[in-house]
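Hello forum,

I keep getting stuck at the same step: I have a sequence, I want structure tokens, and every attempt I make locally crashes halfway through. Rather than fight my setup again tonight, could one of you with a working pipeline run this one for me? It's a single chain of 192 residues.
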Amino acid sequence: MQNLQNVICITDRHLCHRPFQDQMRIVAALHPKAVILREKDVMEDTYRILAERILPVCEENGVPMIVHTFYRVALDLGVKRVQIPLAQLRELPEETRKQFEVLGTTVHSVEDAKEAVSLGATYLTASLASGGAHEYGTQNKLLDFLEEVSSAVDIPVYALGGASREQLDDCLARGAAGICMMSRLMTIDAGE
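Reply #2:
Ran it on my machine without issues. Output:
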């Protein structure tokens, strides 16, 4: 798999067939646009340990790691990139938001997208509310949604849920900056 400049990797260590850190070495060597260390099933202390292990792997390959949810971990590690759920972003004080150079959130509507921008978001991951790989679908619902959101805001928008590497060009044609990938990158082997 080559040319991942428009692909953000979202992690889920439970999908890996090998130790998570080893899998992330393979992913980082592919040079995606960024890695969002998601790992939603852990508490902050465990997340911090994971972040401390994965950050050097990303840095060695020149890949930005984005901390998901746990913004205090990001600040403690000197990471100026965070992805915050929109509900949490609404509650985050402005002075905290301003400490991040990269601030992302997931949106499910044009209204969400506009609100996220007003809260200081620098990029968005856009997903239909239903979620899952079926979103791309035969009627191109995700593509229509991407076009609506991308037209409504002046920051990069990445497709989340359902767009594969093969559909990247379609997403780009509709105004998206790229796509997010999880499953394929969490199972990819070196040399693929």
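The radius of gyration is 16 Å. If your local run keeps crashing, start a new thread with the error log.
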